[in-house]
Amino acid sequence: MRIAIVGGGFAGLATSYHLLEKDRSLQIKLFEKNRIGAGASGAAAGLLHGYVGNLEQPHWKEYEGIQFAKKLLKLAAQAIGKDTYIANGVVRCIMHQKEIQTFKKICQNDPSVFWWEEKYTASRIGIAKPSIFISEGFSVYSDIYLQGLWLLCQRNGAELVSKDFGPEDYAYFDIVIFCCGAELPKLYPNLKLVLKRGEVLLCEKQLKYGIIGNGYFSLSADPNLCYIGSTSRENLEEISLEEATNLILSKTNVWFRTNTKILGYKSGIRVHRSSGILYPMIGQLDHKIWCFTALGSRGLMYHGYLGAMLARAVLHQKPELIPNELGIY
Ligand SMILES: Cc1cc2nc3c(=O)[nH]c(=O)nc-3n(C[C@H](O)[C@H](O)[C@H](O)COP(=O)(O)OP(=O)(O)OC[C@H]3O[C@@H](n4cnc5c(N)ncnc54)[C@H](O)[C@@H]3O)c2cc1C
To answer: Which ligand 1 atom minimizes the distance to the CA of 293?
Structure first.
């Protein structure tokens, strides 16, 4: 079977990997018009943990998502012979008094999450706020991880086609899977997606843990550098380093003043459902076309789990294997 995967980000690579895991005889061609990781995936700051966003409700399938992601991170690290992440944990600081009860409940229910009093947090990270320590939180080195994951796909038989997938390419393939991030709404405007551009800053700073509060900090592959994030804007125009710095530091400096040297920034476009609902989107668009999108800010959490789910549905030609909440609506 000939399968085209369009897009070399987290979604496209995880789907390619899982398809080939299930059937090595598939002919997988990965179309990438720029380079692997050119989209939002290459811009990701790399925080991976189960306590993203509003913590009142547990996230859909976060446990499964993180287990699949961890497996791929480890395999990619073996393939490329470099670390793809650091598992030092993530500190999530309390920003509002009303969060205290929720955070304490999390610590009671999850033995891998610990309550840190204000003084203890200050002694560990220099921020005088109570916090939770998510001991199983990761900082993923997105660029290295993407390269490692692509190496795995290649070893299993995937081929890179370095061009824009266009109408002339459809006929050759039995199946086409669009994992093309911000380009998908141009091809399928009816999918009800919204795009938001975001930036993260690269700075000189040694960090022991990932940190989340008003904005966030994540570790990079270089122990002397970290990322500070992030912006999120409906205006998709690129902005200058100075503008990105002002936007991001105006957030983080409110709770954690950093005198760090800013070295540069990464920018990418996140895809969300226009309804504001946080479920990613996987679906069949016609008898041979499928899509995988709307990963929002949770690309790392969901790409592995949903890549495996999509691979199963595609190979069995059974869209009903995909839960309704992930569908196209
Ligand atoms: C600033 C920022 C920080 C983030 N931080 C985090 C984080 O810490 N943790 C986390 O989990 N998530 C984070 N995210 C979100 C995460 O990056 C996204 O959810 C994820 O990258 C989406 O992956 P994707 O594969 O769907 O799309 P993309 O990564 O955008 O990949 C799409 C690819 O398709 C290619 N393409 C498009 N059209 C075509 C075509 N016609 N032919 C060939 N190729 C094509 C593009 O070049 C691109 O490489 C962040 C996002 C941003 C912007």
So the answer is: 26
